[in-house]
Design a protein that fits this description.
Helix content is 43%, strand content 21%. By secondary structure, it is an alpha/beta fold. The strands form 3 sheets. It has a 6-stranded mixed β-sheet. A hairpin with a 4-residue loop joins strand 1 and strand 2. Helix 1 packs across helix 3. The protein is globular, with a radius of gyration of 24 Å.
């Protein structure tokens, strides 16, 4: 059956938005053109793909089945287009890396320095995003590779995922404001104190909420921010107890600023490298991946 790809692309946008007007806006065509394309596709397939009313658009069972098969194909084509466009626009000399600001600052800087010394002509495009968002950027082929926290629900089987190192999460506080240095606190006791932590749109937040729930404790943070460094600053002046990865406080603890021990065990998490091995990997990207694997530029050991 000879069906134009553009018809499937229009169908995909309508199916994802369930709106002819939104699909038209994203495709930069008129709403009538969208309607006509859907009509032609339905005629060629001999199936009704959408039910339409004055208030809503919905997929028929046949439309849902078609979307299930079309969506992966659209993603693959988009990935290819993005990669070709990126390579052409930058002379093939761009490496796109996505990582959180914390991972960039405390882990990636030595690797980026080593890479730049070896490939000074390659443009490094470093994108800061949460680990959840980084996985999305990789899925969309907006990034060539990512370094992210794991567990991470947005990492999937289509990605090649490799563990770079393990780390622990810790509670830190100002001893003058919260002196629990001679004891261990339970999660229930911690929940009664002002907890400072990353916002909900982060793997760190999801991890701590999950750990508290496993012990039947409800977690209601006093402050939620997007920066671990700011959380540490606020904890240092006594505004609460910050929950941060241990590599953020390596060498920063002293008698007045310390790590609180907990009765419950917090599982270690991982820093992982992820990339799409089904797509061609450039020479500079291969070098950076091998550099990460070797650990030759690794920062100081974690606590």
């Amino acid at each position: 059956m000879d069906v134009n790809y553009e018809l499937y692309k229009v169908f995909y946008h309508v199916a994802k938005t369930l709106s002819f007007s939104e699909a038209a806006a994203s495709l930069f065509i008129s709403q009538s053109a969208v309607s006509q394309s859907v009509k032609v596709l339905e005629q060629r397939l001999g199936q009704v793909l959408f039910t339409r009313s004055t208030k809503r658009v919905a997929l028929t069972p046949e439309g849902e089945l078609l979307l299930k098969h079309i969506e992966p194909a659209i993603h693959l084509i988009t990935k290819g287009e993005n990669q070709l466009t990126s390579s052409k626009g930058n002379g093939g000399t761009q490496l796109r890396i996505a990582a959180s600001d914390t991972i960039c600052r405390y882990y990636l800087v030595p690797y980026l320095n080593r890479f730049h010394q070896t490939f000074p002509e390659v443009h490094l495009n470093v994108m800061n995003a949460t680990s959840l968002q980084c996985a999305e950027l990789l899925s969309q082929n907006t990034a060539d590779l990512i370094i992210a926290n794991s567990p991470n629900p947005n990492l999937n089987h289509s990605m090649q995922i490799e563990t770079l190192r393990e780390f622990s999460d810790v509670f830190v506080a100002n001893k003058d404001s919260y002196d629990y240095s001679g004891t261990e606190l339970s999660f229930a006791e911690l929940s009664a104190l002002p907890i400072l932590m990353l916002s909900k749109r982060s793997t760190t937040s999801e991890f701590l909420h999950e750990q508290f729930l496993l012990h039947s404790v409800e977690l209601a943070p006093a402050v939620e921010l997007s920066s671990n460094d700011l959380l540490i600053d606020l904890a240092r002046i006594g505004l609460g107890i910050a929950f941060v990865p241990d590599f953020c406080v390596t060498g920063k603890t002293d008698e007045s600023f310390y790590i609180i021990r907990t009765k419950e065990h917090l599982p270690k998490r991982k820093l992982v490298l992820a990339f799409d091995s089904s797509l061609p990997v450039s020479g500079p990207a291969k070098y950076f991946i091998e550099l990460l694997r070797s650990g030759e530029a690794a920062p100081a050991p974690l606590l």
